[in-house]
Amino acid sequence: MDTVTENDHMKDFWMFSWWYTIPAVSLYVAFVFKIGPRLMKNRPAFQVKTLLIIYNITQIILCAYVMERMRIFAQGDLFDFANCRVHDDMSEKSLEYYDISTYVSMLKNLELFDTVLFVLRKKQNQVTPLHVFHHASVLVLILLYFRYYRAEGTFFPVYLNCFIHVLMYTYYTMAAVLDPQFMRRFIFLKKSLTIMQMIQFGLILIWLGFQGTFCNVPRIHIYYFSFITVAIFYGFYDFYQKSYKSNWTSGRMPHVPMRFQIYFNWIINSPTHYTTNPIGSQQHPNCITSTFLLDSSHITIGLCQYPYWAKAIFQLDCNNIPIGL
């Protein structure tokens, strides 16, 4: 039997409805920008390390599962940019497509929890317009494609994004469970993931060009997808330039700088230690109390700048430095 009833085919259609998507996006934006920060204003940050680890592992498993389902479904045509097959009938193949798309929608809705965790942990500086725009716009994109144009080719950008997310959430899990000092060996992965994100958006734009040329994709889908892809690409590119490229050449911090008062024994070429926030400490003639800025390339004290080998001089305990990453 190659057909199914319309009721079976439409059983989860509420997930691809404007009546669900608009309230969900509105509530998400309101919570992360207004409601959440107001609720957390006079409360301590939630300690959700265990929940964070569970969430990251869940994301890895779900992304890998969706990737495998798509690979089996497409049967070798997953990377065919001109794949124009549409699954909008009552066949078993269309039902399988609909089933996979439902998992994709659940996955993208679950990703909103990323921002909720930022708010609950009082890391509001990470709730950037780019971050919120990315998550909110994807929900609308999922609705446009999986309700109005159920094309098999749509699985390519989703597959690509899931692959990036498997790597990203793996890194997040490692950062949550491993010793911070040990994790510094993998700091290069943060830069690599940003580059991979930009490559992903470049490939999606090429894919959109093929889809718009060879397939009967509604123009609004192409325009909207192209707009949000270019916008997010620019956001990642701007972040990359400010965080990894221009700041290395200018000697500024390649991540978020954190200024704080530090007290240390300054004896050139002699290993010493420091204590942060020295209250009532007696200052030695060879000691300096100053505003201190640490980054991965320089140690800045006042207007003087010392190369990173100064770490050997000051014996910096990096685990106690709030670098704000």
TrEMBL record:
This protein's GO CC annotations: endoplasmic reticulum membrane
Domain of life where this protein originates: Eukaryota
A Pfam family recorded for this sequence: ELO
Main localization (coarse): membrane
Substrates-to-products reaction catalysed: a very-long-chain acyl-CoA + malonyl-CoA + H(+) = a very-long-chain 3-oxoacyl-CoA + CO2 + CoA
Keyword hit for Ligase: no
Membrane topology field: Multi-pass membrane protein
InterPro entries, alphabetized: ELO_fam (IPR002076)
EC numbers, comma separated: 2.3.1.199
GO molecular function: fatty acid elongase activity
Keyword field contains Magnesium: no
Subcellular location: Membrane
Keywords, comma-separated and alphabetical: Fatty acid biosynthesis, Fatty acid metabolism, Lipid biosynthesis, Lipid metabolism, Membrane, Transferase, Transmembrane, Transmembrane helix
Membrane spanning stretches: 17-36, 48-67, 132-149, 155-172, 193-210, 222-240
GO biological process, one term: fatty acid elongation, monounsaturated fatty acid
Similarity section: Belongs to the ELO family.
Protein name as it appears in the record: Elongation of very long chain fatty acids protein
